[in-house]
Specification:
Shape: globular
Strand content: 15-25%
Structural class: alpha/beta
Bound molecules: zinc ion
Length: 301
């Protein structure tokens, strides 16, 4: 039984709320410094706050646009998950896929493409966070593996931009297998003496961090990106200690030797171009499959 009961109806507002003359979505408020930014200005600065340099999250398409010189060719566009485990959590995975495909216009959480960066042919894979938290299921694993194979076949450097909550729970162990599959592919890329640049953006966690995101020849992160395996709460509960300030952020990881460089998004393309040029400065020979000569071991007394 309620203690108080409203006997009177609430007073209705007399006038309708004045219609805003500013069309919706024209301005964006920065969550970090509360600055109101004009949408076009934000787009011009690659979605980095012009006042405090807060990095807004990019979609996979925006990411590709920020990196490639001009147009690019997308690959393996038709791959989609078949819900192999017939998984249901709060709703059936099949339903979740359908609604996400409808809202994002994508079939899964990664776009792979080839094009040019700084005049050099490259293969780029960019992850899409709005597709079930950028999680890695069978399709993400397969598309990235094919991107690696494409890089090897065309003798092109590979760049993967991670933005992911980790392995996709709804595909269980099949998701976890992608970690090994992609890592094995990257080992082949390495044997072919082709560079792999890993770009870690906010957030890069779980199975993605634990596999390809940390395997770059060069690991580049955006400022203040959350990068880790388990979340801070889980770690605190396990080790029963308070975690230090800025734990699992790019700058902290750089300081502890987990990353090579943290760079503002507006300088990302220039940096990647320089890294690619650096890699190309040393002549890349075609890998020669050569059996290592059996070493003679002479016991000396
Ligand atoms: Zn700001």
């Amino acid at each position: 039984m309620a203690w108080f009961k409203k006997t009177k109806k609430p007073i209705a507002a007399k006038t309708k709320e004045k219609a805003s003359r500013v069309p919706e979505g024209l301005w964006v408020k920065c969550p970090s410094c509360a600055q109101i930014i004009y949408n076009k200005d934000l787009a011009a600065s690659l979605s980095v706050c012009t006042k405090c340099a807060h990095h807004f999250r990019l979609t996979a398409a925006e990411r590709l646009r920020s990196l490639f010189d001009g147009s690019w060719t997308e690959h393996d566009t038709g791959l989609r998950s078949t819900d192999p485990l017939r998984f249901t959590d709060t709703k059936p995975y099949k339903k979740r896929l359908e609604t996400t495909i409808a809202s994002t216009g994508m079939l899964d959480a990664v776009v792979t493409a080839s094009g040019q960066i700084g005049g050099r042919d490259v293969v780029v894979a960019a992850m899409e966070y709005s597709f079930i938290g950028g999680s890695m299921g069978v399709v993400v694993g397969e598309k990235i593996t094919r991107a690696i194979e494409r890089a090897i076949a065309g003798r092109m450097p590979l760049i993967i931009v991670s933005c992911s909550g980790g392995a996709r729970m709804m595909e269980g162990a099949l998701s976890l297998m992608q970690m090994a599959k992609i890592s094995a592919g990257l080992a082949r890329l390495d044997r072919a003496k082709l560079p792999y640049i890993s770009v870690l953006t906010d957030p890069t966690t779980g199975g993605v961090t634990a596999s390809f995101a940390m395997l770059g020849d060069v690991n580049i992160a955006e400022p203040k990106a959350l990068i880790g395996f388990a979340g801070p709460r889980v770690i605190e509960q396990t080790i029963r200690q308070t975690l230090p300030e800025g734990f699992q952020r790019s700058e902290f990881l750089l300081e502890h030797g987990m990353l090579d460089i943290v760079v503002d998004r507006r300088e990302m393309k220039d940096l990647i171009t320089r890294v690619l040029r650096f890699g190309a400065a040393t002549p890349v020979e075609k890998p020669v499959e050569k059996a290592e000569p059996a070493r003679e071991v002479v016991a000396k007394n």
